[in-house]
Amino acid sequence: xxxxxxxxxxxxxxASDRRGRGRADSKRxxxxxxxxxxxxxxxxxxxxxxxxxxEIAAQIGQVKERDGLEVWSPAREEEVIRKALAQSRGPLPAxxxxxxxxxxxxxxxxxxxxxxxxxxxxxxxxxxxxxxxxFGNAVEHVPVGSIAxxxxxxNRRHVQFGLVPLENSTDGRISDTLEMFARHSGLKIRxxxxxxxxxxxxxxxxxxxxxxxxxxxxxxxxxRHWLSKNLPQAALVEVVSTAHAAEIAQxxxxxxxIASRTAGEAxxxxxxxxxxxxxxxxxxxxxxxAEQSEAPTGRDKTTLLLRISNQAGALSKVLAPFEKAGxxxxxxxxFPASAENLPGRDPSYLFFLDVEGHAxxxxxxxxxxxxxxxxxxxxxxxxxxxGDCVES
Length: 392
Ligand SMILES: O=C(O)C(=O)C[C@]1(C(=O)O)C=C[C@@H](O)C=C1
Prior knowledge:
- The chain is α/β, with parallel strands linked by helices.
- The protein contains 13 helices and 16 strands.
- It has helices spanning 15-28, 32-67, 74-87, 94-112, 126-135, 147-155, 175-182, 217-222, 224-230, 242-251, 261-266, 314-325, 362-372, and strands at 116-120, 140-144, 161-168, 172-173, 188-196, 200-203, 212-215, 235-238, 255-259, 270-274, 283-290, 300-308, 329-336, 349-356, 377-385, 389-391.
- Strands 1, 2, 3, 4, 5, 11 and 16 form a seven-stranded mixed beta sheet that branches. It has a five-stranded mixed beta sheet with strand order 8-7-9-6-10.
- Helix 2 (32-67) packs across helix 4.
- Bound molecules: prephenic acid.
- Prephenic acid binds next to helix 2, helix 3 and helix 4.
């Protein structure tokens, strides 16, 4: 039941009652100045506490360096955020608590070591937003020109991590990323980021004058019905990223871009329409790629790449051990093994699978041994903590 604010008249109080009580209460009612003084006192304590926390994080950094441990621990960060959300009784919204703790840990991490993360740019692409959602703002986000370049940057050790899109709930797999994994990239998935995607139509011309709409192929596809209904006259033009589309719309007349609200603000465009994605639930899953994957946390997922012979029943034979062990598969994607196929031979297929659990869990490890015997190639692309969906 809603509680009555202190000093508020009860609904049945008479007007003279209220006038009398109003005079008495005005003596006790907090003033703007007294409330602000209270906030100043709390802020003083908060700043001291935040810095105390940062000092301890810096000490953790020294322990990690001594023991040769990695600075970034996505599992621990998820745990800290989960505990903070469970302890919070409001009135701050959960999303605010999450953002505060994300930035707190981002700043603490940067005291231990400065990190660089490559993602598909330019700035304010959804990959960049996913990188901010995972690492916060106290890392160096390095926007590059293609998904292949993200892999390259990590492989050459120009950055510690890369962020690449894996799949979208409306539009399916991101072939450029799967193809890079298929080419024996040698890199591992270290964490996942599930980002809720809200698209905006951004531009400088009135909606009715828009002749061309630029965006990444997946974003155009996710807004296909909205576009055909609302902008049937416009030509749809695919470009490398949504943020690049925003850059073009900034300088070209009668053009618009489909990108995030943040990209619109960054590139000085008007929001002509928002939330134009066809599906209410439009989530892209990104992978953080690195040289190594994560240790088990008890709440993990493993991504596998399989090459299966082109024979009747081969796939069901390969999947049988998962069923026998009661292991849940959360994704399966087939992909032509074009780089490995030879002319004159039946084409073979690669399969990308997500299985719940960590490759070092005894049940998963035993199952993978059985699966390995039934396929032509099995690669563990990474075991990592399962991520929660976050707003972009
Ligand atoms: O617990 C750790 O390992 C820390 O380094 C501290 C901390 C934090 O600020 O809470 C910072 C960075 C890590 O990625 C995880 C957590």
